[in-house]
Structures
1.
Amino acid sequence: AQSVTQLDSQVPVFEEAPVELRCNYSSSVSVYLFWYVQYPNQGLQLLLKYLSGSTLVKGINGFEAEFNKSQTSFHLRKPSVHISDTAEYFCAVSDQGSSASKIIFGSGTRLSIRP
Amino acid sequence: GAVVSQHPSWVICKSGTSVKIECRSLDFQATTMFWYRQFPKQSLMLMATSNEGSKATYEQGVEKDKFLINHASLTLSTLTVTSAHPEDSSFYICSAREGGARNTEAFFGQGTRLTVV
């Protein structure tokens, strides 16, 4: 079974500062990894995903993440944040088995941007 | 990207009544659909996984007789909360995944906020 740990429940940063949201996963099989963003009272929007190949993945809104197999991590980064990035961010994992493979979410990290 | 439409976006119902939530994949065939529940300021907890034409597989601790899931077609799954109680008030989110080579990513609906009074 897979599991995801997001180490930080809240991350406050100043506008235009860089940010890193941490994610570690556990799995005995090969996985797909995802980062989603959720704005209040809305569903989830995919920021980026790692399927295979290059370990550095670029997503929407200037976000990127790096897959590190040895450290079982998939940390999300942005070099300069904006007020509009204030939201809840979820890391998720799914094994590569089939379309029925579960997508398991981490506990989420609330990113708050200070002007 | 693929679109998943969830309806209604919010609903208020009286205690003891049943509520049905629909999840539709608009431009792809969803071999698998997932239903999640999210409490305020918490993560998404998987309730069940359904494959078209089969019975849903429920996660441990989820009452299958209370949360009825139907996945009768490749574009529609429904979640019915039966005999709803205030503790069932929550944000419910569905997601859908296409089968075959495009089965890497699941697409999410916009969620349904259920309030039971």
2.
Amino acid sequence: KQEVTQIPAALSVPEGENLVLNCSFTDSAIYNLQWFRQDPGKGLTSLLLIQSSQREQTSGRLNASLDKSSGRSTLYIAASQPGDSATYLCAVTQGGSEKLVFGKGTKLTVNP
Amino acid sequence: GAVVSQHPSRVICKSGTSVKIECRSLDFQATTMFWYRQFPKQSLMLMATSNEGSKATYEQGVEKDKFLINHASLTLSTLTVTSAHPEDSSFYICSAPNTGSDHGYTFGSGTRLTVV
């Protein structure tokens, strides 16, 4: 059974700092991995999707990497801003299934 | 881009009553809709998968008679929480696979259900 773990559970940084969020998964036979952002009481916004054949994806100040063999992904946020404050969720899909398996998320607070 | 509209965003109901949550795909056809539940500080947990025109598939431990799912059209899926109890209070959120080649998902905005 696939399990997704995110470390740390919470992170507080000053504005402008670069930071890394970590995600690990137990079964490396994934189809893809996605990073989402969730604001309090809101739905999920997709940030980056990495196919299993890819190593990384970039969008603006965000860069996500994937090391499938070791079961790890990182989300790098450059020059953090208070507006980046949210919970960041990592989720994977297995081959042959559209089901997403989520981690518990990392709650990020960027202080002005 | 693809949008999934979910309503209501918040609902408070009395114990024993039923609540219906709707998810509509606004600019694409969603043959599949996933329904998740999220308890505070916990992961989103998949409850069931609805498929247009056929019966929903429920995850282990989810009572199909309590969480009724209907996917009557390509743009509408509903989740009805029947005979709600306080332990059903949670954040419910739907998701549909994106059309096209990105293999991503679009999520609704979620429904905060409080049963009193």
